[in-house]
Write a structure and sequence with these properties.
This protein is mostly helical. It is built from 14 helices and no strands. α4 runs antiparallel to α12 and α5 crosses α7.
Length: about 325
């Protein structure tokens, strides 16, 4: 199996792991609301995210210490890890807050707007027209987004959840582009991951400190067994495994190709949302119903997927 094919398959596996995170984060938010009904949405978003990255950083640090006896990284590894961590922090905070105002499947599909943001940015930087295939794909994505976001053409607005998800997608575009930079090609994935997780943990801990009503609120969450169970799944499956695969294998292909591959993520997210909510409701004693395959989800998601296939064909031809 060629290196490129292996990279594509492992990145698709990473999207499956990320797909789990959409219903899981939303279920965690429901659990948080049950345990602390007076919480503001930003505290919920930051507490959903902060523990998974703090624990992931600690786990990776212990593993690297045992394996190599050192946590040292190069200057380039530190710089790349910090910048990726900052982009990821901003994107995830927006996305997690947005999940409190929109469905998991809609959020999963709207997040894939970086498939448009990345080529448009590259076009502006290189001043080259990407061609008819690219523009046709952009139109398909925009129409699909308007359907998924329940766009109100009369008032010309999306809801808060949809806008925040799209803003998060913009930050994720920066994360993908920084991972591709050729000057960082010699960086070690495990060192980038450790710096990235640590950066995320620091930023999110700051968010928790700013938004938490008091220390007792954190203690209430930490005393919940379901909260720890869902957080552990997020840490191991959606963080250490998924981002480990991304940091190791995305540099083997181009950023545009990676953006297209990551668009498989909402399909996994929509599939997970068909059955995970009921399981989480039973475990955590929350009211979170399984989602269904609505016409809007099938139509909007289908258009976005068609755009990605069209772009992939164009990339392969070039």
């Amino acid at each position: 199996m060629s290196l490129r094919i292996r990279a594509i398959l492992l990145l698709i596996l990473a999207t499956a792991f990320w797909g789990v995170s959409f219903p899981l984060v939303k279920g965690l938010a429901f659990l948080h609301e049950r345990l602390l009904p007076q919480s503001n949405t930003w505290f919920i978003a930051s507490m959903v995210l902060m523990p998974r990255f703090v624990l992931a950083a600690l786990l990776l640090a212990v593993w690297q210490s045992v394996r190599s006896g050192t946590l040292r990284c190069t200057r380039d590894e530190f710089v790349q890890g910090v910048v990726i961590g900052l982009f990821s922090s901003a994107g995830m905070i927006c996305q997690s807050d947005a999940l409190q105002f929109t469905s998991a499947s809609t959020s999963a599909f709207l997040t894939q707007l970086y498939v448009v943001f990345i080529p448009v940015y590259l076009m502006m930087r290189t001043r080259r027209n990407p061609g008819a295939v690219m523009w046709a794909s952009v139109i398909l994505v925009l129409v699909g987004v308007s359907i998924l976001g329940n766009f109100d053409w009369r008032s010309l607005r999306f809801g808060r959840g949809e806008w925040e998800t799209m803003l998060g997608s913009l930050f994720f575009s920066g994360q993908i582009l920084w991972l591709e930079k050729p000057e960082f090609s010699a960086n070690r994935p495990e060192k980038i991951s450790l710096v990235m997780y640590t950066t995320l943990g620091v930023v999110l801990a700051g968010m928790v400190a700013i938004t938490a009503p008091d220390l007792a609120s954190i203690g209430v969450l930490a005393s919940s067994a379901p909260w720890w169970l869902f957080t552990a799944i997020l840490m191991i499956v959606c963080t250490v495994a998924a981002y480990g695969l991304m940091n190791a294998w995305q540099p083997k292909i181009t950023a545009t190709e990676a953006g297209l591959i990551y668009c498989v993520e909402p399909i996994f997210g929509a599939l997970m949302a068909l059955f995970l909510p009921a399981w989480m409701s039973e475990v955590a004693d929350v009211h979170y119903s399984n989602e269904t395959l609505t016409p809007a989800l099938l139509t909007g998601g289908g258009l976005i997927t068609a755009a990605n296939v069209l772009l992939m064909i164009g990339v392969r031809k070039r």
